[in-house]
Amino acid sequence: MDTLSAACRRRPLRIAATLGLVSALALATPAWAAPGSVTQELRGKIDRAQLERSYAQLVEAVLPAVVNVQVERTETAGPAIPAPFADPDLRRFFERFFGQPLPPMPERAPRFRARGEGSGFFVDGKGHIVTNAHVVNGADKVTVVLQDGTRLPAEIVGVDEKTDLAVLKVQPKGEPVWVEFGDSSKVRVGDKVIAVGNPFGLGGTVTAGIVSSTGRELGAGPYDEFIQIDAPINRGNSGGPTFNLDGEVVGVNSIIVSPGGGNIGIGFAIASNLAKQVVAQLIEKGTVERGWLGVQIQPLDEDLAKSLGVPDTKGALVAKVEPGSPAEKAGIEAGWVIREFNGQPIDRLRTLTRAVAAVPPGSKATLTVLADGKERKVTVEVGRQPSEPQVARAETVEPAKGQPRLGLSLAPLTPEARERLGLEPGVQGVLVREVDPSGPAAEKGVQEGDVITAVAGKPVRSPREVADAVKKAHADGRKSVLVQLWRDGQPRFVAIPLAVS
Length: 501
Known about the structure:
The protein is an alpha+beta fold and about 500 residues long. The protein contains twelve helices and 34 strands. Strands 2, 5, 6, 7, 8, 9, 10 and 11 form an eight-stranded antiparallel sheet that branches. The two termini are about 45 Å apart. Residues about 1-35 and about 390-400 have low confidence and may be disordered.
């Protein structure tokens, strides 16, 4: 199975030939690529016909802006070493021998100095360099090596682990050559790109390819937005830029697919539109402030949409509203479906997550929601994102013939069960004791140990209340019933079809 690995590697280094690798290029800066924004210099000067034969003109211009990032950090190796005289009897013997108490001697973990490398690139004339968070995280010392071999000590300006981006700052002699971000929303599948880096301290390397996909979500963070490229991103190129043929940075190299430690030509770069927002805040404030609504959301499926009276599966279903959050203050409730945020349609959960995060805290935002099947507008003041036994005897309520069933065995939620499940104090409901593998609840993923907190929008506190709510939904002609569950500290909704006994 393919595994995702960071596109950088700690020493000791093993250098392997990589398909598509262009040999290390000359270190001299071409006369026409003077210090300043290379991107501006290239606009209107790229010979498109020449690009069909060679990328040399483009590469010679942008390469001086790309740097090698070397880091040193202190790490722990293996388990802690027991303290001397840890044995109580041995300690008492020596205390009697010396005639005085021995000083405390805590356990020690063996530590060593680790070295790692990555890449980066200048984004302004003030010495700011963009790289990956995973390249510099935990670093005690960071050194930047320029294309001409100059070594400069670097300061970590800010790190944002949620997007795997970081900004460094050096004091170069004179204004460096730097590059600008392009508009990643204009990147199309099939566009030609080049990935540039400075791995292993050997000098700049370049690989070329095309865009394989855009808007990739890999689960690497809550704000994933990757451009997938087939240009082999060399190990050590983490933090390096991916350029379009106009010399604009459209991505920051971050991840490669490496099932056996080698490169198979599948890489991912953080989209420039996401990167430039984060980088601007890191340069200005050293940290990233994100908007926050205070809701937990889940996707809609067809059964949930029908149960909620939603015409399709687009939108984000509110599973929980955090107490005291901006959403609670605005009157948003669990079970509502957010369809638009500031006029932007919510086609998937990540769209809402990114849209909210991009809003400055304290700003007003307008949400279009569906509540009880009716559309309404809600204005919310976006907040600042915060810096995350035995049970009772099961009670199986057997449905009468012709009555709906869920295929569940339920039990009251006792204090012992609450403690075992680690439930929050405010969570009330009914414990799922057993699940019939052939029942409709099992088909929808209901599990033993789940807690049913509401059925058809009404709180339940006993197995009988669950059964009564299911019967009423069936009597009302519903084909499924909306059930709210609590599992592993998270709420969720599920629409369970009503099977008839």
